[in-house]
Amino acid sequence: xxxxxxxxxxxxxxxxxxxxxxxxxxxxxxxxxxxxxxxxxxxxxxxxxxxxxxxxxxxxxxxxxxxxxxxxxxxxxxxxxxxxxxxxxxxxxxxxxxxxxxxxxxxxxxxxxxxxxxxxxxxxxxxxxxxxxxxxxxxxxxxxxxxxxxxxxxxxxxxxxxxxxxxxxxxxxxxxxxxxxxxxxxxxxxxxxxxxxxxxxxxxxxxxxxxxxxxxxxxxxxxxxxxxxxxxxxxxxxxxxxxxxxxxxxxxxxxxxxxxxxxxxxxxxxxxxxxxxxxxxxxxxxxxxxxxxxxxxxxxxxxxxxxxxxxxxxxxxxxxxxxxxxx
Length: 327
Fold this sequence. Notes:
- The protein has seven helices and 18 strands.
- 19% of the residues lie in helices and 33% in strands.
């Protein structure tokens, strides 16, 4: 290789090297970090017990939950009916614990991919949640999007969200489940009578003969009462199942009685317990659903078997209030 050719190649190498160095030096020394670690809702995290009102705006509609006294909550869209306090507590704790961990898109046309679009947009799947204190201070407000699950060991999981007044969307740690049906927020258990607590049941059926069932002691089996001589219990009849019908009764929805047009024909059940409760249940099919009313009042408890036996064995002078006992 001639000296001239060698010098030419050296010049090309030098120029290339200098170009690479200049390219490296021209890059910015500081880049924008995508990962952060800060509370998503600082005011809520600081004082979660201050929450007095929760507003949920979902594709199904608006749900408003308000604190009445202590930890008692009510749903305004269901006539102030009591709310399941555990559901409220779980929501508040989940939001208070959420932390922003990664910036996501700030372009509105991409919001729908994360389900952080405004809830009233066409085909929206997002949900807006707002928590306020008693004086109206907003403790937390965000459009809650879909959850992201961990696909690899390096990808964080969490929930997408966006503050309504900000373009920036985020991936936040944790998950939050928001029930979109207001009835799912209510304290749905109405009656929970243990089968053995029932002493007597009287059933009236629309257009059919009624019947009664009773027992003397909690451990006894229910039996039909008032049977005629030519009547007998069906072989497949299960009175035990009847006594368990009021164990863990839950409803699907509620409505004030005056808003229901009660039909002339309806079923009626009157239940008496050993410890002194009389429960009256009225049941009817109204429109496309079954509705029931529940009324309860205290009555005289059934005498304990031991006390009844003792009273029966006492002398008349001790049992009768008209004759004083001898000294």
